[in-house]
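Saturday, quiet lab. Running sequence design on the structure tokens for the scaffold JK sent over.
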């Protein structure tokens, strides 16, 4: 079995693949002070429910955008899974495409994984809209290479900033309002956040089309993607496991380098 660790700024996803399919996955909040031992105890309990042991894990791969957590994820794999993990973004890891940016080393592991999923599983040219801590747009060109992208503030981040900066505004949940014009403070805020982001995404997608003059396939992923994808007509595919799919494909390219158990 393959253990995938996808560590983001807000959440960490642990997924176990059996063959080409996800057998199980779990999510926890990102906490930079958590140790490898704490992850091991938590993960062992959840794996036990699925009747999986650490010894069943034959190889591991890590995507991490929080540098302070890296050593604990590596130690978790090495000490408890007895596997030297493939770490996306490290030198020598083949991702299967070229990164055509000025500073390829700056591109986040999650964005690399999303591009790999498009390259090996879907059609391109494509744009991946990832609704995470940041809302990102990643462009995969007609050759399957990473051509660049856009980073905008995430929806929850914008909502939190609005609440913190305005003393009289309440905390709200994000949902699609029944109408654009709010008739209360809460519905006005919901409309501003929801329809504001719909307009931003529509506008940026159009600008990318205008700039590159390509017939892009638009794919969405991330925590709030499902809520927005049904409203944004340009988005044709919603793939909640896109990052995991890409990490699986990167593992397949590099598995001979993974010093896993025999």
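Result came back. Writing it out in full:
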């Amino acid at each position: 079995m393959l253990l995938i660790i996808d560590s983001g700024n807000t959440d960490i996803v642990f997924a176990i693949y059996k063959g080409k399919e996800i057998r199980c996955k779990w999510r926890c909040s990102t906490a930079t002070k958590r140790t490898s031992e704490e992850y091991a105890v938590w993960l062992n309990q959840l794996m036990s429910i699925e009747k999986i042991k650490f010894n069943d894990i034959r190889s591991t791969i890590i995507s991490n955008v929080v540098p302070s957590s890296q050593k604990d994820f590596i130690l978790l794999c090495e000490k408890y899974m007895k596997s030297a993990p493939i770490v996306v973004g490290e030198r020598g890891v083949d991702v299967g495409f070229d990164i055509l940016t000025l500073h390829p080393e700056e591109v986040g592991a999650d964005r690399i994984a999303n591009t790999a999923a498009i390259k090996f599983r879907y059609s391109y040219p494509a744009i991946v809209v990832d609704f995470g801590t940041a809302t990102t747009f990643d462009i995969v060109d007609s050759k399957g290479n990473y051509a660049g992208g856009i980073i905008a503030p995430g929806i929850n981040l914008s909502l939190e900033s609005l609440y913190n900066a305005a003393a009289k505004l309440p905390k709200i949940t994000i949902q699609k309002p029944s109408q654009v014009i709010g008739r209360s403070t809460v519905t006005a805020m919901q409309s501003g956040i929801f329809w504001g982001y719909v307009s931003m995404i529509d506008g940026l997608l159009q600008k990318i089309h205008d700039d590159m003059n390509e017939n892009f396939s638009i794919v969405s992923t991330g925590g709030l993607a499902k809520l927005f994808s049904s409203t944004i007509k340009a988005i044709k595919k919603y793939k909640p496991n896109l990052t995991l799919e890409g990490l699986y494909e990167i593992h397949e390219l590099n598995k001979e380098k993974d010093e896993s158990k025999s």
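Notes for JK: Helices lie at 36-49, 70-80, 109-121, 155-165, 185-212, 225-229, 242-254. The chain has two domains: 2-92+246-257, 123-238. Ask whether to fix the surface positions before the next round.
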